[in-house]
Amino acid sequence: MFDFLTNLLRGQSSGVGIEINPDRISLAQITKKGQQYKLLKYNSIEVPENIFEEGQIVNSEELAELIEQLLKEAKIRPKKVASAVPMREAIIRILPIPAELNDQELRDTVLNHEASLYLPYPKEEVDLDFQKLGYFVDNDDGIEKVQVLLVATRKENTDVYIETFQQAGLNVSVLEINSFSLIRTLKEQLKTYGENEAVVLVDIEFDSTEIAIIVDGVPQFSRTIPIGTYQMQVALAQAMNLPTSKNTEILQDITIPNNPDQTASSSTSSQTWINPGMDSLLKVLGELLDELRRSVNFYLNQSGDKEVVQILLAGPGSGLAQIDEFFTKKLNIPATKVDPLTNLGITIKDELSEMERAGLGTVLGLAMRIS
Predict the structure, then answer these.
(1) Does the predicted model carry a pTM greater than 0.70?
(2) In this structure, what DSSP letter does residue 111 have?
């Protein structure tokens, strides 16, 4: 069984976090002295198109070579590595279990009985882990229970990540779900919300957007939408008759209009050149918003007394100018961009674009896990 959840919000030991995405591999090493974090290393490297297909690793040997190259450029050879698998590869559930069970009985109940109720494939084919959360009294039967966070991923998925790192000469000490890493980066910010206040974490990555609705620091609902910065870039490029590629730099100069119903601008505007593609880009964002709205409504229908009070925008896609204002207007829920470096009080010398800076949340969370 792999260690997904132990010390979910705490560090472990000296090492590095390595985040693998279809477009880029990123490495971070941080240290903590008192309450202050310091970034010791940050490096990233682009991933060629032949490594991934539909979000899945299909060329682990070349990916391992890229990891070795990244470590060489960073001038580091870590003893311990933390990495993450995408949330779309995981099943995450919160289970109510009678509090009277001892630790061994709880483990047996969760892993051998309850888990099978939520798995769409045989238990032998998955890696399972769980963590006890808080206690509560069930209003339906008056019994004291403990909430248990259950996580499962298919072994064939986790094995690919483990084997890739082994080919690079590394042993993975921690392999978790990427949304957990991002939550760790934001934990101080999440503490400011009450126990009945739900926060929607919207992580806009390269080829997908991961949604986690969080209450009291714990994800209560999760969903992956197959829309990311790549789909935005393709829509924009095609509308402008430009070649499409994995490179999403074209989005860095985009400003989402304050009034998305009127995309035309005057001929003197510096943004005139993007107007032919803005409608196409806004259609993609509109599809993302529709799916997000459905997710929020579904959660609210199930949760009863919870209120969604905030949307936190993370990932590279949150680096688009005025995207927070766009989400706020369309969903009537306050939306705020997440700055992972500011959240942790980290300053860096390198100049990063807004999209690059916004995309650091997961890799910093991995580094925290093993720092």
Answers:
(1) yes
(2) I
Q: Sign of the CA dihedral 78, 80, 84, 85?
A: positive
The residue ranges of DSSP E strands in the chain, in sequence order, are: 16-20, 24-33, 36-46, 52-53, 56-57, 81-85, 90-98, 126-137, 144-154, 172-177, 197-204, 209-215, 218-225, 307-314, 335-337
Burial (0-12, 13-18, 19+ Cβ within 10 Å), 306: middle
Structure confidence at residue 14 as a pLDDT band (50, 70, 90)? low
Q: What is the pLDDT of residues 31-77, one digit of tens each?
A: 988 888 999 999 999 999 899 998 899 999 999 999 999 999 999 98
The sign of the torsion formed by the CA atoms of 176, 46, 233, 313 equals positive
> Contact 260/282 with Cβ under 8 angstroms?
yes
Half-sphere exposure of 236 (CA within 13 A, CB side): 25
